[in-house]
Protein 1
Amino acid sequence: MKATVFGSGACIPGEKMPEQILAGWLRAAALFHSYYHQLVGQASQQVHQADLLGDTPLAHASRQPLLTLVMAMQAELATLLQDMDQLALLTQSPTPRGYQKLAAHT
């Protein structure tokens, strides 16, 4: 049975424990970061090949979705870093709302 325990000691049946939420969020953030670096590597390789072979309109168009995804992931990583800055506060004085925010991200 899952239960959430907050500062008051209250348990909410069916909810995850704060430690589970935090661990899941950290795993998801690390995996997202790994995927981001894989995509950056692929995008860099494509740009390098275009520099060597000459950039054609078709090559540029095929590369554009990947670059758009990389930029979107970079923006999301910036948001995750801001959330990580708030983790210290959350672990010092846990609140249901703080853990709900982490749970929503994962």
Protein 2
Amino acid sequence: MEKSVAIIGFNIFSPGGTTRSNLNNIHDFLAAGYQVDYYNFRDFSRLDTVKLCRDNEFLEQANFHDVKDIKDELIGKYVFITRENFFPLLNISGSIILKKSLLEKCMLL
């Protein structure tokens, strides 16, 4: 995981300013050579992903996950949290315990 980021967001599959901001961030990270893993809070389907990638071709290089996947594995050297109310996700316990080192690399967009 040399150059990788995880972005935790609410719903990249709905229109709006936050979605546009997340799309711009993903585009810029991909253009800079980062692996991007986006964790979506709202449920989504494979069809949602296909439609979004069709409208934004650069997204074919990104990976999309349900936010619940964080319990098993959070992929990304850096983590960007796009909503303050997602900060409690850093306290998730389970098969992975997010430690202080993760807190140090988290940033609020």
Protein 3
Amino acid sequence: MLDGFEFCGELSLNGELRAVRGVLAVALAAGRARRGLVVATANAPEAALMRSANVLPAGSLCAVAAHLNGHTPLQPAAFENPAAAATSGPDLADVRGQLQARRALEVAAAGTHSLLLFGPPGTGKSMLAQRLPGLLPPMPEGDVTDRHNRATDDRHIEATRTGL
């Protein structure tokens, strides 16, 4: 009954499943082992980044028990690409003038080059930088997980440094 599943989460005293850190690595391992992964509902978006894993979000131990007994099946988590959300931001077409800066953004995005914007306040540096993600193509799954791992590590390092 439990052979095809992995479970990841914190169980509270009232039977509620709580989120834990590092669920993306667990999802990677579960996907490679071709096993279902039951996680807390709050961890589902992160675990679903690993498309190869069958992620089943649950809110409580009762929901997990009902799923395992065949009464109420858990619904698989849907993959949501965070890079796709980034492309829904401001559009470069909204920028009037600034032809050289717009061209520099396009070249940097097309060739994966670095870009440095400098100048006095109010010249549009932030406005242009906010439009750069809309020029980039969606990230492949491997890049999404690598970026997420780095961002998680950075947050952990910052929390350790500040004592939180």
Protein 4
Amino acid sequence: MSREISYPITKHCLVMMNGGFGWIQLRTGNKDAGYIYFESDPNDKKDRFGGPDDHPYIVTHLPMSMWNAVLTTLRSEQGICIRGFDSGDGNVSAFLYTSGDGSFFEGG
């Protein structure tokens, strides 16, 4: 069974760890909308859904080299949303997009 989740991003929080690892927590109101994990080599990580069944959030992984681009986008764009789609095979695709302009990049 396919599944799609989409949330508007109302705020974000940053965590940068020693050793080239960090994440951005995306919020919709007072609930989690998603997490973007940044690592030196995220290629072996799969996007997924997490959290409770009544309000799942989206988890995606990007290379550390995209940290500045994503942060700049979150700070400057309006109407950003996160979307997760699972066609039913367990492989989730995560996207950030602007509500008026369409997708601007896709997570891993």
